[in-house]
Write a structure and sequence with these properties.
Elements lengths: L3 H10 L6 H13 L1 H6 E7 L2 E6 L2 H9 L1 H12 L7 E6 L27 H15 L1
Parallel strand pairs: 2-3
Antiparallel strand pairs: 1-2
Helix pairs in contact: 1-2, 2-5
């Protein structure tokens, strides 16, 4: 497997086929490292401003504090002239998860013991009900 810096160098040499946004997006994981790259998403390059989505306010504040180091690392990775001169960290919207459908019980399937929260009391009730109906 090739190092990311070698891949980026190849991309830069073929820059007529690759946009600056693609270069900046490819350079992001190299510049910030795997842990931060896994927690962030590059959404685009607007002019020389790289827009990154983060999980929450805490990540936004922490990365904002590191922005000068990140910009230096991006410049080192991408070379001169700098492709990215500003960073914008946006909080990502809530992730959408599939809605789980619950199985609807019919009146014949319903068990009144399910309304009892305590598992011990629920089992005692079921045992007593079974004994009474036997």
């Amino acid at each position: 497997m090739e190092r990311a810096s070698l891949v980026l160098a190849k991309l830069k040499s073929n820059s007529q086929n690759v946009s600056t946004e693609q270069l900046a997006t490819a350079a992001w994981p190299v510049a910030v490292g795997r842990n931060i790259a896994n927690r962030t998403t590059v959404t685009g390059l607007i002019g020389h401003r790289l827009v990154i989505e983060v999980e929450d306010y805490i990540w936004q504040r922490q990365l904002w504090a590191l922005r000068s180091q990140i910009l230096g690392s991006l410049e080192k990775t991408l070379g001169k002239p700098p492709v990215v001169t500003e960073l914008e960290f946006r909080i990502a919207g809530p992730s959408r998860r599939p809605v789980q459908t619950s199985v609807q019980r019919t009146a014949s399937d319903a068990d009144e013991a399910d309304a009892i929260r305590d598992p011990v009391m629920r089992s005692i009730y079921r045992a007593a009900r079974k004994k009474a109906t036997a």
